[in-house]
Design a protein that fits this description.
This protein has 158 residues and is an alpha/beta fold. The chain contains six helices and seven strands; from the N terminus they run αββαβαβαβαββα. Strands 2-1-5-4-3-6-7 form a seven-stranded mixed beta sheet. The termini are far apart.
């Protein structure tokens, strides 16, 4: 009975803890430290965090598709896309050249130690979270062509 209670408490705590944006510092592509809690805190603004890696084709496809529509979406919604690279120390050196070769209009963060990914218990990428007022208000796991339309509808409803 005690094991079941502990399991329920753990699951309940873990679920609750994921509702807030973790208080972590990550680096941008120039090595500048960025605070998740302080730098993404504009009231009522939506922050779309897209977790990706250089070796993940669906991730790159998603970022390409989002880039094609983000300017139009900003006419209707106050939001920002933050692309969070989960590349580790072996593949991190590929991030900047890939980003420089694309014309993506995003803020980029490096989650080299995968602290952000781990804090949200993310198993697979691409993985997208939408944050509003420090709370995670939507999660989209995976990508198939057209997923951005579903994301846009969700953003409009928030």
């Amino acid at each position: 009975m005690n094991k079941l209670l502990l399991l329920l408490l753990f699951v309940g705590f873990n679920t609750y803890s994921q509702k807030n944006l973790p208080d972590l510092n990550l680096s941008d592509l120039d090595g500048k430290k960025i605070s998740l809690k302080n730098d993404f805190s504009e009231k009522d603004k939506l922050y779309v965090f897209s977790f990706w890696a250089t070796w993940c084709s669906p991730c790159i496809n998603e970022l390409d598709e989002l880039n094609d529509v983000v300017t139009d979406w900003k006419k209707e919604i106050n939001f920002e896309v933050i692309a969070v690279s989960t590349d580790d120390s072996r593949t991190q050196k590929r991030v900047k050249p890939l980003v420089n070769g694309k014309e993506w209009n995003y803020k980029f963060l490096l989650d080299t130690n995968q602290d952000f990914k781990r804090a949200l218990s993310i198993v697979n990428i691409p993985y997208t979270i939408v944050v509003k007022n420090g709370k995670i208000v939507h999660i989209q796991n995976g990508y198939v062509p057209g997923s951005e339309v579903e994301l846009f509808e969700k953003l409009k409803s928030l």
